[in-house]
């Protein structure tokens, strides 16, 4: 069973526009949630993680994500896109009682000048 | 080292040959993970180590794949009798300890091409 779904394998926005990357999880118990970014030919870097301390999580590079239990979502946003944000973004979950991280299929973000 | 180190960064091998991929985790990290990233695919979990033992090896695709970890540090992923479908980027990650909100730190990956 798919634990995490990212809607949209490709998202394209204009420089300065809002970035919204969608992530939904399928678990009756809220899992631990992470967003990672992968720049071309590089490994994955953590953007932010949900720790249950607050539903709105701020990460690096101006990104943030909001945990919504009622919608089983953890969408990633950035108010104003920058050219340097072009990368692939992965949502990941760690289910309660498990250790492995399960990743979504990824969303490739393109920024148009 | 400062980060997770993987070697080689690139490997081209002939179909049917065996390959070994190496991962040096961050010093002191007890958990180590292997993932596979194929073109156009997400990250596929292969195996996870806690210390030298592998509590979860459910993602290994076939018995041609094996992994070990020694001294609670370096890990080797071995693929025997490689096939073209094994071509992918193999990513290793480590984390400090068991903890469900503990982040995993990733290496740069080994790009394996089977010709």
Properties at a glance:
heterodimer; A: 113 residues; mainly beta; six-stranded mixed beta sheet; 12 strands; 0% helix; globular; B: 115 residues; four-stranded antiparallel beta sheet; 50% strand
Mean pLDDT of chain A: 91
Mean pLDDT score of chain B: 93
Q: What is the number of helices of chain A?
A: 0
Order of helices and strands of chain B: EEEEEEEEEEE
Report the major sheet of chain A.
Answer: 6 strands, mixed
C-alpha termini separation of chain A: 39 Å
Q: Strand pairing plus helix content of chain B: what structural class?
A: mainly beta
Beginning-to-end CA distance, first to last residue of chain B: 33 Å
Cα radius of gyration of chain A in angstroms: 13 Å
Percent helix of chain A, as a range, is under 10%
The fraction of residues in strands of chain B falls at: over 45%
Order of helices and strands of chain A: EEEEEEEEEEEE
Rounded to an integer in angstroms, the radius of gyration calculated over CA atoms of chain B is: 13 Å
User: How much strand content do the residues of chain A show?
Assistant: over 45%
Low-confidence stretches of chain A: none
- What sort of overall outline of chain A do the alpha carbons produce when their principal axes are compared? globular
Helical content of chain B stands at under 10%
* Spatial shape of chain B: globular
């Amino acid at each position: 069973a798919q634990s995490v779904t990212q809607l949209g394998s490709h998202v394209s926005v204009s420089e300065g526009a809002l970035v919204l990357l969608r992530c939904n999880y399928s678990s009756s118990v809220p899992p631990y949630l992470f967003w990672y970014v992968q720049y071309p030919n590089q490994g994955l870097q953590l953007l932010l993680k949900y720790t249950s301390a607050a539903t709105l999580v701020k990460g690096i590079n101006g990104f943030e994500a909001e945990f919504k239990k009622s919608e089983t979502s953890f969408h990633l946003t950035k108010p104003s896109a920058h050219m340097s944000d072009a990368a692939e973004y992965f949502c990941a979950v760690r289910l309660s009682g498990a250790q492995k991280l399960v990743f979504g299929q990824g969303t490739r973000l393109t920024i148009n000048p | 080292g400062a980060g997770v180190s993987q070697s080689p960064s690139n490997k081209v091998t002939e179909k049917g040959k065996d390959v070994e991929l190496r991962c040096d985790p961050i010093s002191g990290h007890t958990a180590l993970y292997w993932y596979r990233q194929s073109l156009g695919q997400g990250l596929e979990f292969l195996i996870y180590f806690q210390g030298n033992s592998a509590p979860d090896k459910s993602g290994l695709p076939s018995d041609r794949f094996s992994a070990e970890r020694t001294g609670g540090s370096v890990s080797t992923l071995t693929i025997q009798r490689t096939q073209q479908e094994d071509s992918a980027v193999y990513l290793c990650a480590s984390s400090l300890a068991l903890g469900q909100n503990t982040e995993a730190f990733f290496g740069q990956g080994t790009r394996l091409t089977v010709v």
